[in-house]
Specification:
The protein has helices at about 20-25, 40-45, 55-60, 65-75, 80-85, 90-100, 105-110, 120-135, 155-170, 185-190, 195-210, 225-230, 265-270, 300-310, 330-340, 405-410, 440-445, 450-470, and strands at about 150-155, 170-175, 215, 235-240, 245, 260, 290-295, 315-320, 340-345, 345-355, 360-375, 380-385, 390, 395-400, 400-405, 435-440. With about 475 residues, it is of the alpha/beta class. Strands 3-2-1-4-16 form a 5-stranded parallel beta sheet. It has a 5-stranded parallel beta sheet with strand order 6-14-7-8-9. Helix 2 packs across helix 4 (about 65-75) and helix 4 packs antiparallel against helix 5 (about 80-85). The longest helix has 22 residues, at about 450-470. It is globular and about 70 Å long. The protein starts with about 20 loop residues before the first helix and ends in a 12-residue tail after the last helix. Bound molecules: flavin-adenine dinucleotide and iron/sulfur cluster. Flavin-adenine dinucleotide binds near residues 176, 190, 221 and 408.
C-alpha cells in the first residue's frame, strides 16, 4: 500500500480521482476514471465529519448507511465497508460509477456547505471494486423453497433489485429479459468507458447466485402475456420493470436517411453488439468523419463520446438551450469537452440534408434565444429569424429522450397507463391496477435514474412480500433480507 497521509476530518481538498488522459482515452473503450487506491480511499474517507445526523443518507434513494461505510474505509476495514453498503444496495459497483451523487447524497453532505463534499460515489465504487478483486464470488444458492413464485419482467436495475430482494426473502423468482443479456440500460445503453460490462455481468451473476432463474430472449407480451403468467404459468405475482426503451425523434425532414440513428440503437450496436469490433461483429455502425448529436443529456454525451472513440474527427452536440440548462451531469460534459466534442449551444436542427443517394450529408440548424421559463421551469428556446446555417455531417444521432415502449403495456389491456403511456403504480408499493401485478423504474417514472429504479424495486419487493403473506398466511419464507 503506498504511503498517503490521512486527511483531517473536514479537510477542504477532495482527493482527486486518477483518470486516463484525454489523448489516450479517445482511442480506447476502457474506463476513464481508474479508481482510488486503498491509500487514496482512506485519505478521502478521513475527511468525513462523522455527523450525528448524517444528512448524506437522506439524499440516498435506497438509504445506504453512508457514514458507516465511509468510516469503515477510513479504518481500513474494507470488508465491513462493502458489507454495510450491500445491506441496502445490490449494485454498488454500478451506483458508485453512474449515480448522480452531486444532486443526491453529496449535495446534502454537511462538508459541502463550506468545502467540497465527501466523494461518496468514488468511495462506494472503491469498496465494490475491492470486494470484486479481494473476496471470492458468492457461492450459488439453490433456488429457494417455501416461498411463492414470482415473475420479474425486465432485468434492468429495477428488475434486478426486485429479483434479488425477493430471492433473499425466500421466494422463487424467474427473471424474464427480452434481450440476450441481462442488465437493461446498464448493459446496452451506458458505454463501456463509463461502466464496464464485465462489472454489470458480475452484479447480474451475484443476483442469479441467490437462486434467481434468468430467462433471456423472452419478450413478455409477445411470447406470453402477463395474464398467462398469472393464470396459466402459476406465478403468484408479476413485477414489470420494462424500462423506457422507445426513442423519441424530432419529426423533422430527413430523419429517415441512412446514417441517422436513435441514441438507443447506436449505443446498443456498440455496447451490446460490439460494433466497434467490426468485421468481427455482425452489427456495424457506418464509419463517420463528422457526427451531429441532437440533445443535451447523459445519453447525448454517451453517444458523442462513443462517436469520438469510433474515429470521428468532428463531433457536434446540437442543443437548443444554453449549457446551464443541459440535463447531463457536469462531469460528463467536462469529459466530453476534454475529448474534443464541440457544443453547439442555442441551436435547433430544422432539417437533415441528403447527399442524393439517401445518405445524410448535412444538418440545417437555426439559432435560438431563451425566453421566459416554460412548464419545465427552464427558459423556453425561441427561434431567431433568418439565423439558419448548415453543418456538414455524415451521421446524426438523435438523443432527445425516450418514452414507454408499448410492447408489453399494449398487450395488457387491464393495465392503467397515464397519457404518456407509462404504467400508473402506487409510489410506495408499485401496485398497479391489476391485482398481483406491480411495476417500477423508468416504465413508471419516465426516463429517470438507476438509483430511482432501484429504490422503486426495493419498495415493490417489500410490498409483494407483504401482500403474499396476507394472501398465503404461514408461507415458509425467511421473512427478512439476507445478503
Ligand atoms: C445512454 C444512457 C445513459 C444513462 N446514464 C445514466 C447515468 O449516468 N446515471 C443514471 O443514474 N442513469 C442513467 N441512465 C438512466 C438509467 O439507465 C435508467 O433510468 C435505468 O436503467 C432504468 O432502469 P429500469 O430497470 O427501469 O429499466 P431498464 O434499464 O431500461 O431495463 C429494462 C429491461 O427490460 C427489458 N424489457 C423491455 N420490455 C420487455 C418485455 N416485454 N419482456 C421482457 N423484457 C423486457 C429491456 O430489454 C431491458 O433490459 C442512462 C440511460 C441511458 C439510455
Ligand atoms: S454528511 Fe458528509 S461529513 Fe457528514 S457523515 Fe455524511 S459524508 Fe460524512
Amino acid at each position: 500500500m503506498e504511503p498517503v497521509a490521512k486527511a483531517r476530518p473536514g479537510s477542504v481538498a477532495r482527493v482527486p480521482m486518477p483518470m486516463q488522459e484525454p489523448a489516450e482515452r479517445i482511442h480506447n473503450f476502457q474506463e476513464v476514471p481508474t479508481g482510488y487506491t486503498p491509500a487514496l480511499a482512506q485519505r478521502e474517507a478521513s475527511r468525513c465529519l462523522e455527523c450525528k445526523d448524517p444528512l448524506c443518507v437522506r439524499g440516498c434513494p435506497v438509504g445506504v448507511d453512508i457514514r458507516g461505510f465511509v468510516t469503515a474505509i477510513r479504518d481500513g476495514d474494507f470488508a465491513r465497508a462493502i458489507h454495510t453498503i450491500r445491506q441496502d444496495n445490490a449494485l454498488p459497483a454500478v451506483c458508485g460509477r453512474v449515480c448522480p451523487q452531486e444532486t443526491q447524497c453529496e449535495q446534502l453532505c454537511v462538508l459541502g456547505k463550506k468545502h467540497e463534499p465527501v466523494a461518496i460515489g468514488r468511495l462506494e465504487r472503491f469498496a465494490a471494486d475491492w470486494e470484486r478483486e479481494q473476496l471470492p464470488a458468492p457461492s450459488v444458492r439453490p433456488e429457494p423453497r417455501g416461498g411463492r413464485r414470482i415473475a420479474v419482467v425486465g432485468s434492468g436495475p429495477a428488475g434486478l433489485t426486485v429479483a434479488g430482494d425477493l430471492a433473499r426473502l425466500g421466494h422463487s423468482v424467474t427473471l424474464f429479459e427480452a434481450l440476450h443479456k441481462a442488465g437493461g440500460v446498464l448493459m446496452y445503453g451506458i458505454p463501456e468507458f463509463r461502466l464496464p460490462k464485465a462489472i454489470v455481468q458480475e452484479e447480474v451473476d451475484r443476483i442469479c447466485a441467490l437462486g434467481v432463474k434468468l430467462v433471456t430472449n423472452a419478450v413478455i407480451g409477445r411470447m406470453i402475456t402477463v395474464s398467462e403468467l398469472l393464470e396459466e404459468e402459476g406465478f403468484d405475482g408479476v413485477f414489470l420493470g420494462v424500462g423506457a426503451g422507445l426513442p423519441w425523434f424530432l419529426d423533422i425532414p430527413g430523419e429517415n436517411l441512412n446514417g441517422v440513428y436513435s441514441a438507443n440503437e447506436y449505443l446498443t450496436r456498440v455496447n451490446l453488439m460490439s460494433a466497434w469490433d467490426f468485421p468481427n461483429s455482425d452489427t456495424p455502425v457506418r464509419p463517420a468523419r463528422r457526427v451531429a448529436v441532437f440533445g443535451g443529456g447523459n445519453v447525448a454525451m454517451d453517444a458523442a463520446r462513443t462517436a469520438v472513440r469510433l474515429g470521428a474527427e468532428e463531433v457536434h452536440i446540437i442543443y437548443r438551450r444554453s449549457r446551464e440548462e443541459m440535463p447531463a451531469r457536469q462531469e460528463e460534459i467536462e469529459h466530453a469537452l476534454e475529448e474534443g466534442v464541440r457544443l453547439q449551444l442555442l441551436y435547433s436542427p430544422l432539417r437533415i440534408g441528403d447527399d442524393g443517394a439517401g445518405n445524410v450529408r448535412s444538418v440545417l440548424c437555426q439559432r435560438m434565444e431563451l425566453g421566459e421559463p416554460d412548464s419545465s421551469g427552464r427558459r423556453r428556446p425561441l427561434p431567431v429569424p433568418n439565423s439558419e446555417f448548415e453543418l456538414e455531417t455524415d451521421a446524426v444521432i438523435v438523443a432527445i429522450g425516450n418514452g414507454a415502449n408499448p410492447l408489453l403495456t399494449g398487450a395488457t389491456p387491464q393495465l392503467e397507463l397515464n397519457r404518456k403511456g407509462n404504467i400508473v403504480a402506487e409510489s410506495g408499493s408499485g401496485r398497479t391496477s391489476i391485482p398481483g401485478v406491480y411495476a417500477g423504474g423508468d416504465i413508471v417514472l419516465g426516463a429517470a435514474t438507476v438509483i430511482l429504479a432501484m429504490g422503486a424495486g426495493r419498495r415493490a419487493a417489500a410490498a409483494i412480500h407483504h401482500d403474499l403473506q396476507v394472501r398465503f398466511p404461514g408461507i415458509g419464507t425467511t421473512g427478512e433480507f439476507h445478503h
